[in-house]
Amino acid sequence: MATIAARPFERVLVANRGEIAVRVIRTLRRLGIRSIAVYSDADADAPHVRLADEAVRIGPAPAAQSYLDPERLVAAALETGAQAVHPGYGFLSEHAGFAEACRDAGIVFIGPGDEALAVMGDKIRAKRHVAASGVPVVPGVSDPDLDDEALLAAGEQVGFPLLVKPSAGGGGKGMQIARDAAELAEAIPAARRVARTSFGDDTLLLERLIERPRHIEVQVLADAAGAVIHLGERECSLQRRHQKVVEEAPSPLLDEATRERIGRAACDAARSVAYLGAGTVEFLVSDAAPDEFFFIEMNTRLQVEHPVTELVTGVDLVEQQLRIAAGEPLGLAQHDVRLTGHAIEARVYAESPERGFLPSTGEVLAWRAPTGEGVRVDAGIRSGQLITADYDPMLAKVIAHGDDRAQALDRLDAALAGTVVLGIDTNVAFVRRLIAEPAVRAGSLDTNLIDRMPVPSAEPPRPGQLAAAAAAVSAEAARDRRAGLEGGPSTWADAAGWRVGAHRAPTVLLAPRDEPDAIVVVEAAGHDAAATATATTTTIATATAHRAGADDAAGPTVRVAADGTIWVHDASGTAAFVRHDRRDLAEARRASAERGGVAANPELRAPMPGTVTAVFVADGDLVEEGTPVIAIEAMKMEHRITATTAGTVRLAASVGDLVSRDQPVARIEPAEGTPDAASAPTNAPHASHQEQEHPNAV
Fold first, then answer.
1. What count of other Cβ atoms lies within 10 Å of the Cβ of residue 262?
2. Could you tell me how far CA 345 lies from the centroid of its own chain?
3. Out of 526-540, 611-625, 644-658, least confident range
4. Which helix H or strand E contains 457, and what residues bound it?
5. What values do phi and psi take at 545, rounded to 5?
6. If you count Cβ atoms within 10 Å of the first and of the last residue's Cβ in the chain, which end, N or C, has fewer?
7. DSSP of 512-554, one letter per residue?
């Protein structure tokens, strides 16, 4: 493909944040275009701000007051003299009003025209549009005038199972599955709430749920002269709750004949709305009949998973967007497109798979991107950055390219093993388990595969990880002793564990952060000590020291958070530990003995930081165990908190409240005959006689 040397623009504003803003800015820099970033108060020192040539503050942290405010973004573009605006994906990338506002201000919107945004930006209208052109669509209900009751009745006529989808927006946000009328009655208002808060539009559509489908999408490019081509397909079937997790190109399902047919259909869909720029047409393909496909929607923007297409075609899609927006013709024809090798992408999310994939927030104590042959990383985070609940939880994308699919999978796994994120929970270990599944390795995929996997559970702590954490505690204790002596003899400062006639290595009581009862006694022999240890949830096991770094030639990476949590990464993965004080353990044991038996904890706490979006009961209501009490939304995910026991509910939060993780939001006063609240369990670990065997803990 011949590349046109001239710059399409001199100054471009990137109306987005995170990894996509960084990725767009890199292409702008390569082309010699001056980049202008925007940022909210939460992103004042974010990587995309540091990378850009200029940056403009556009408001406070909430997206509605910053990244979702067209007026602020247009003002920023005018203030900085930007000739064009690149919207990235998400936020206002498919917002017709924002595109119009840019054009009214004399600024080029790097995206499609008004017709494409209006038609394809509305799932209901898009389905009707393509159906009228003979494109097969999934049966469903797409009437925006139906209220909840009418939508429920219409859904029952279509038949179950059903997929409830917000008409506006994308990315699987707000989608709900209903397998009967009762589930549909709950799914409709829940989907409306998420759609309203995420997209400002609570219009819904219903589609018949196709069991074991494959999600395949086609990348298209179209210029102002009417030329339209496709760059092959991507397989996006590995999803959780309709949110893509792993994507690849090309699909292992399609043969050349089907690839040509589905590509032609995607180009026809783009032509029908006079499309301009880069877009993606999404299809459901039957696993049992790969030659059958159904139109889902068209995303009128760059997709999150675009790097896999770039790696197999060698085409920079952001550059193509810029040149098309500047009025240049496509620099390649359909016969120029060649797919070389295989590429697979994994999304790295700030979430806790072992806690139901709830969002994770906090300070990034350490971030290190992996390297290696065929490895690409698109990221928008840095060490020291604060991850909040204001935005989507995706932190980075790790992509691997290989000569074939097997090599790409192997390279992706190695890259994920070398991805270091400390301070917040991520899905990295889960994704590594996912791509190791036999069905995934064989290419036998469908959108429900993840749901059929066992519930994620935490990996047991590795000896090297325990030892690295103990060494960090030991080193910190030694520093504290030295500081206390104010320059006195170092022998006394290093004398932990000293006894007459013998020296015993000091020990540290550690437990996995999420299993505080699973205490391990680890001998702390120094900065590079390591240990072999065995732990159970009821006893304290003894640890034996050995050299650290046995699991990781480069040595473990260790960071201690402000709350005392010790984070460790080595070749076996990432772990977080809490340190226990021996005296506190003894006091907790005595207090627990005085309380007697235990029962379900009547206090309901927020499992994640977020906003209360719904309260399902009134203060003083009688509830049964399992009754929904409160819904909390964070990072575009809604989580329901249910009663843990029968009794009277006492609310401690209301709709609109901002709550932090583990903040009490309600309490259930047990009904008569149930254990008293005073007998509720605590997180205090159980002590044992082994405490006395290691009296010299640091």
1. 24
2. 13
3. 526-540
4. none
5. -80, 150
6. N
7. ETT-TT--EEEE--STTEEEEE---SSSPEEEEEEETTSS-TT
CA–CA separation, 126 and 132 (whole Å)? 10
Identify any residues that bridge with 612 across adjacent strands, giving them in sequence order.
Answer: 632
Q: Mind listing the pLDDT tens digit for each residue in 4-24?
A: 558 999 999 999 999 999 999
Q: Which run of H or of E encompasses 43? A: none
pLDDT at position 581 is 81
| Alpha helical stretches, state H, 162-242 | 181-199
Token digits of residue 207: 């589609």
Cα separation, 401 vs 308, in Å, equals 8
Please check the confidence at residue 377 and state whether its pLDDT lies above 60: yes
Half-sphere exposure of 487 (CA within 13 A, CB side): 0
Residue (of 645, 506, 630, 510) closest to 568 by Cα position: 510
Integer Cα distance of 178 and 181 in angstroms: 7
Cis before 161 (ω within 30): yes
Pairing type for strands 628-634 and 637-642 reads antiparallel
Q: Which residue has the tokens 């104010």?
A: 486
The total of other beta-carbon atoms located within 10 Å of residue 541's CB is: 15
List the one residue out of 694, 693, 684 whose CA is nearest residue 585.
Answer: 684
Q: Check whether 674 has a pLDDT greater than 60.
A: no
CB of 347 closer than 8 Å to CB of 319: no
The two structure tokens encoding residue 491: 């022998």
In this predicted structure, what is the pLDDT of residue 173?
Answer: 79
In Å, how far are 84, 319, 380, 553, 672 from 367, measured between CA atoms? 32, 28, 11, 18, 52
Question: Which residue in 176, 243, 163, 167 sits closest to 209, CA to CA?
Answer: 163
Using alpha carbons, list the distances in angstroms from residue 70 to 4, 49, 253, 561, 651.
Answer: 32, 19, 41, 38, 37
In whole angstroms, give the CA distance from residue 627 to residue 642.
5
What number is the average pLDDT over the span 301-308? 97
Q: Which helix (H) or strand (E) holds 225?
A: none
pLDDT at 532: 36
How many CB atoms are closer than 10 A to CB 614? 16
Question: 670: cis peptide before it, omega within 30°?
Answer: no
Helix (H) or strand (E) holding 610: strand 610-615
Most confident of 249-253, 484-488, 601-605, 630-634: 249-253
Which range among 138-147, 210-219, 300-309, 555-564 shows the weakest confidence by mean pLDDT? 138-147
At residue 83, the 3 state secondary structure works out as coil
